[in-house]
Amino acid sequence: MKLSVSALLLVGITGVATAFQAPHHVPAVGGVASGFVKTKTTTTTTTSTSLHVATGTPSKLKVPVLDEVCETTGVTLKRYMNEVAILNPEMTELVTLFGAIDTACKAISNLVKRSQLPSSETLGYQGEINVQGEDQKKLDVITNDLLKRALRFTGRIGVLASEEEDVPVDLVNTEKEAVYTETDKYVCVFDPLDGSSNVDAGIPTGTIIGIYEHDENCSIDEECVGVDCSAAELKCLTNTLQPGTNLVAAAYCLYSSSTFLVLTLGAGTYGFTLDENLGEFVLSHPDMKIPETSSIISFNEANTHMWDEPLQEVVGKWKTGKGKSGKSFSSRYIGSMVGDVHRTLLYGGVFGYPGDTKNPNGKLRLLYEGAPMSFIMEQAGGASTTGTQRVMEITPEFVHQRVPIIMGSKNDIEEVIEAYKAAGK
Predict the structure, then answer these.
(1) d(CA 8, CA 253)
(2) In terms of Cα–Cα distance, which of 102, 110, 221, 218 is closest to 154?
C-alpha cells in the first residue's frame, strides 16, 4: 500500500473507507507523501550506530509517520511493517518474520491467560532441567516449541538460539542439534517466556526476541554435529554469538492487563497493543521516548548488601534524595524483566539486575535478554550498561552467557557510569 500525495485510505471493519489529508505544504517524494515519511539514524549516549540491513552495510531507515489514523482500526502491526518495507525494500523479508512473531505472541498470550483454569495442562514443572540448571516449567517448553515452529515456517531463519535449548537449533531437521540453512537470511535469538517462574501467581510475563543477520558465505555439511564439525562449520553455527550492535531488530511481547508488542528496527521504539475485538496489534505508543531523568528504581533490593560499592553508593543517594536529580526515588519491582522494562520505558526509571558476590555476572542472559532489551531501550532514548561497559557492545562467548545489566533513563544511567569510573572500575 502506498500513501498518496493527498490522502491515505484506510478501510475500517465496516467496509467504509476513511481518508485523512497529508499536510498541504509538504511536497511528494517518490510517489509517497513526505509528510508520512521521515528518516532516522540510531544514536546512543556513547556511540552512533546505523541500522544493519541484510547486505551487512549500514543505512538510514525510513519510517512512516502516521499522524492521523482511522479510529476504527488504527495502524496495525501488519500495516506498519508493510509501510516500512515499501520505504525500505531491503527489509521486505522482515514483514514475514514479524508476521510469525505477531501470531506467536497472540498464541502465547492465550496460553498464559488460560493457564490458571482447572482444565489447563500448562501449569507446573516439566520435570526437566535446562542447560542453565533451572527447572523447566511446562509453559517454558510449550512456548519455546510454539515460537520455534512459527519462526521455522517463515523460511527466513538460518540459525536460532533459545533460553530453553542447549545449542543453536535445527529448524529444518529436528533430529540434528544445530544447523545452518543456505537459503535463509536471519539469525533469531529469544527467551520464549521471561518471568515464567511467576506465571502461577498471575504475574506479568513476556517474550523477548532479537534478530541478527547471518553470514551468507557460510557452508556447512548437513551431517555436522558437535565434534564432527570443522572449525569453519562451527564458526557458522556460532552466528548467534554477535554483539547487540549487530542487531537488525528486537522486540518483546508483554502478557499483562493487555498484551503489548514493542519493537525496534533501529530507528526508534514503537509499541502496539492487542485489540482483541479485531485480533490485531494496533499502534498505541508511536516513537516511544523514556524520560531522561526519573525517580523510580527497580532492583531486587534484598541483594543490596552483596552489590559492589559504586552501585550501593548511587542507589543509596537516590533513596535519600542526594543524587544528581535531588529527587527521592521510590521502588517498583515486579521480578519479571519484560514487565519491569516496559514500565521503565513508559514512566522512566532504572531497572537493574547487577552482579553481586553470589552471582558476579548477574542472572540475565546477554544474547537473548540483555542485548535485545538494551537495543529497545537505547532506541527509546535510554541507556544500558554493566556499570563499566555498554551492554550492546559485548560479544557473547557462549549462548547462555550472563551479564550484569542496569538500564533506563539516560541521566540516571550516566550517574551510575560516573560512579564506577570514580571508583577506578
Answers:
(1) 29
(2) 102
Which among 380, 177, 166 is positioned nearest to 271, based on CA atoms?
380
Alpha-carbon distance of 15 to 150, in angstroms, equals: 30
Residues 77, 376, 101, 215: is their CA dihedral positive or negative?
A: positive
Arithmetic mean of pLDDT, 130-155: 78
In CATH, the architecture of 296-422 is 3-Layer(aba) Sandwich (3.40)
Set of cell numbers at residue 29: 517524494
* CB 337 within 8 Å of CB 206: yes
Rounded to whole angstroms, the Cα distance separating 195 from 205 reads 5
Q: For the chain, what percentages of helix, strand and coil (3-state, to nearest 5) are there? A: 30, 25, 40
Secondary structure (3-state) at 273: strand
- pTM recorded for the entire structure: 0.80
Place of cell 465496516: 14
Eight-class DSSP state of 120: -
Query: What tens digit of pLDDT does each residue of 8-66 get?
Result: 323 333 333 333 233 333 333 333 333 334 555 444 333 333 333 333 344 578 878 76
Q: What are phi and psi of 189, to 5 degrees?
A: -125, 145
The full set of domain ranges for the chain reads 7-77, 91-285, 296-422
Main-chain dihedrals φ then ψ at residue 365, nearest 5 degrees: -85, 135
Q: Which residues contact 320 (CB under 8 A, 6 or more apart)?
A: 328
Looking at 3.30.540.10, 3.40.630.10, 3.20.70.20, 2.60.40.10, the CATH number of the domain 91-285 comes to: 3.30.540.10
The set of residues, in sequence order, having a beta carbon less than 8 Å from that of 174 and lying 6+ positions away, is: none
Rounded distance between C-alpha atoms, residue 425 and residue 423, angstroms: 6
DSSP state of 227: G
Q: What is the largest CA-CA distance in the chain?
A: 65
User: Side-chain half-sphere of 48: how many Cα atoms within 13 Å?
Assistant: 5
Q: In which element (H, E) is residue 122 found? A: none
Cβ–Cβ under 8 Å, residues 338 and 208: yes
Amino acid type, 211: I
Q: Tell me which residue of 370, 354, 352, 374 sits closest to 362, measured CA to CA.
A: 354
Helix 138-152 vs helix 92-114: crossing angle, to nearest 10: 160
How far, in Å, are 26, 37, 408 from residue 22 at the CA level? Answer: 8, 11, 35
Confidence of residue 248 (pLDDT cuts 50, 70, 90): very high
